[in-house]
């Protein structure tokens, strides 16, 4: 897996001050994407154990609320296999911090068993995410007044409540 950037004090991609990992690789190719360079699976730098340690060290501050994954596309199957290992470490070392993930895939169709992005890591990865921002960016539905998303079709899903109630529960901010 490759990554384009790590932001150690991000306030734009989730509630509170966050550490954000921008992964590389995306097959959606949304028109109007704000960083199309991340579509390339080899854009940026290789993700290594040292990079993982850098992320974990950045999370180790009281003022950091959590981790955000975006891209590119975190739920590309090749990326999931690496990210699930990172999320295991985050959950073990920082159980009080939340995890947000942005995806162009749709939760109940693309990420469900048999969906086009589902692989052996998907269920475990989803189980460790608190907020899933799902849906492709649609330029015609772009709305800069929305919090934490770019177009009105995208949803902020509260995954723990969604799993508990067995239906989509949107995050209340």
Query: Low-confidence stretches at least 5 residues in length (pLDDT < 50)?
Result: none
Count of helical regions: 4
Helix content: 10-25%
Radius of gyration over C-alpha positions, nearest whole angstrom: 15 Å
Q: List the secondary-structure elements in sequence, H or E.
A: EEEHEHEHEEH
Instruction: Give the N-to-C terminal Cα separation.
Output: 32 Å
Q: Structural class, from helix and strand content?
A: alpha/beta
Shape: globular
Q: What amount of the residues lies in strands?
A: 15-25%
Compact description:
The protein has 173 residues and is of the alpha/beta class. Helix content is 24%, strand content 22%.
Give a written overview of the molecule.
The chain has 173 residues and is α/β, with parallel strands linked by helices. Helices cover 24% and strands 22% of the residues. Strands 3-1-2-4-5-6-7 form a 7-stranded mixed sheet. The mean pLDDT is 96.
